[in-house]
Amino acid sequence: MPIEQNNQDARTMYSRISTIIDKIQVKGSLIRKSGGFLSALLIVAVGMATPSNALDQEEGISGEVNIGGSLATGNTDTTRLDSEFKARFKAGRLKDNYRLLVELAEDNGTTTAQRILGSVESRLDVQEKLFVFGFLEYDDDRFSGFKFEIEGAFGAGYKVVNDSNMRLLVQAGPGYRLSKLSVLGTAQDLFVVRGSADFEYQFSDSSSFTSTSIVTWDSSRTTLENTIALTSDLFGGLSSRLSFNVRYNSDPPALTRKTDTLSKVSLVYGF
Fold first, then answer.
1. Which end of the chain is more exposed for a tag (fewer CB within 10 A), N or C?
2. Per the domain annotation, does 186 fall within a domain?
3. Model-level pTM?
4. pLDDT < 50 positions in the chain
5. What is the mean pLDDT of the chain?
6. Distance spanning both ends of the chain, measured CA to CA
7. Which of 232, 245, 219 is nearest to 117 (CA)?
8. How many domains does the chain have?
9. Does residue 54 lie in a domain region?
10. Domain that holds residue 166
11. 214, part of any domain
């Protein structure tokens, strides 16, 4: 009886090993290129992974509310509030994105940050990976050297990657920007070229990484902006988010710096 049991165990183990070898041989060309055990192990792991469908957006309305802040009292009285609202509407080949951003900060009774930004963008799929877009934004940043800036653009975009758990979209086109200086009150209106890249990666059912890069060029200056964020689900529709934003202006108004950065921890409620 023990001998028969051992033979049965051996046959079972041999069957399992054969199954694994067959799976590896299906992807044999990749293994031969990598030339190592680690590469084979990674291929097997990827083959066994189940991609998340969290990036698939259903028809209708969805969005999120993002709130972060801080409060300090005592020798220093500092308060800060950062809030952001995003809404998305999808109907067939049309997708609209709405955004409202509010940043306020005060240090010992003196305002140190005040920004209100609103934007709307519409995308229309022309083909499976090709789309056209229209974009409009109003930005009122008290400490940027501008009283306000209004920017609009239109153009075409391409879905470089559009998988269930990873997306990379790039787009570019001509536009127009109206800027009003805070000090002199003079206005500047210029034609611009605007390009952006949006990257999303859902590396588990509860965690995701995003990166949004924007570049705007005109005859007088170039502006760059990048925001990266790591979001982790907590419970229900509530999530936590770590984010870092950097903005660069090649030719800022007098008495303002070229680069602004903002690191933030916030709570996000999705709907």
1. N
2. yes
3. 0.76
4. 1, 3, 6, 10, 13, 17, 20-21, 23-54
5. 84
6. 61
7. 245
8. 2
9. no
10. 60-270
11. yes
